[in-house]
């Protein structure tokens, strides 16, 4: 048996503070030290051993499926089917993709060697980064905790995982799943508030993977800079949707409404606002109403009783989102659909706003709620100009029947990802990197790109006993000059 043989998982035995939801700095340091030692061992782990760990994780997820559904309903009334579709299924998909391809991902890649290094061979070796910190958000609290975890495990790392304190029931189930599959030295979960995250960020991790808002992403990046720790930042921003004059309005409305109101709009790649020709607004709004009521089998006045439409995560975010509507309406916007709120339930009905001023706050902040502001344009160039006046978004959507129009929009804009004639679905394809750019994030993951995010690409050159560079060692004689001049001519 090799040094990297996996030990049988033991239950986590974390030293909790009296709060029972936060951890003493000493406990964080203790587990960090355990994982540093284990990380050295895991550098020698094989694909087979890592796949066994991924299979353990997958089995634990299925074993606790009902508890996951119950927890997410308790946290913000997310229906069991939406939990399956948006939390469990994508996580299992990521794990399965790693299981199928991990052996090939781990192989060294042999690359060409220039003539100046004649006789040498070159390759890229993928190595685990070491001890990794994963900080998960509250909007998809299960998927966005476990999918990065699976990528880190596949890459051969140890992980300290911090779920969101805003979804405590889901965090508890995540902890239970991890305890059933891993020992502290491999994976450890830290529940608790922002003080726990702050304490974790003081440690010299080998990599930090953070999903959340841009302001907090800046805090994480600043903390990582103190230790020169590499980071993957999955952030957000205002993802625009352009509807061109030749678009199929009914199709566009159906797909935009699904993406906008999934998870009550609390999705980092949700269509944040729509740019549409003035002449198409009324018809689009009508199609949007029809699609929304069909999806949720509810008329506008009955949405509060709908079991498939989840709630805003907490009172603070409820107040923030509803304030966007109040401020926009005072500035001249009109509610074309929805606009019903229930503060006692943190309920905000699917809402469409028209005649929205471009300088309204709803057009500046990421909404993260079931509000869809509609902005009109006279020329497509105006829509492109508006998008380019804002920070680069995480996603961009364009609806058009013209490939030329789609390509024109994509070439003249920048975003983390883009979809033509649909929304959100690019993140389902594990063969595509998912991530942002500048304000919307740094780095990417999913599938092979997740493996790379948690791996160090190490350059390895093997030099023979004799190589051309040895002829260029000092002293710099005329012979050395001849060799240099001759070699230089090869590149002319």
Automatic annotation (TrEMBL):
Active-site feature positions: 234, 268
PROSITE patterns reported in the protein's UniProt record: ALDEHYDE_DEHYDR_CYS, ALDEHYDE_DEHYDR_GLU
UniProt cross-references to InterPro entries, sorted A to Z: Ald_DH/histidinol_DH, Ald_DH_C, Ald_DH_CS_CYS, Ald_DH_CS_GLU, Ald_DH_N, Aldehyde_DH_dom, Aldehyde_DH_NAD(P)
Organism: Leptospira ryugenii
Record-linked Gene3D superfamilies: Aldehyde Dehydrogenase, Chain A, domain 1 (3.40.605.10), Aldehyde Dehydrogenase, Chain A, domain 2 (3.40.309.10)
Alphabetically ordered keywords of this record: NAD, Oxidoreductase
GO cellular component: cytoplasm
UniProt name for this protein: Aldehyde dehydrogenase
Domain Aldehyde dehydrogenase: 16-459
SUPFAM superfamilies registered for this protein in UniProt: ALDH-like (SSF53720)
CDD domains in alphabetical order: ALDH_AlkH-like
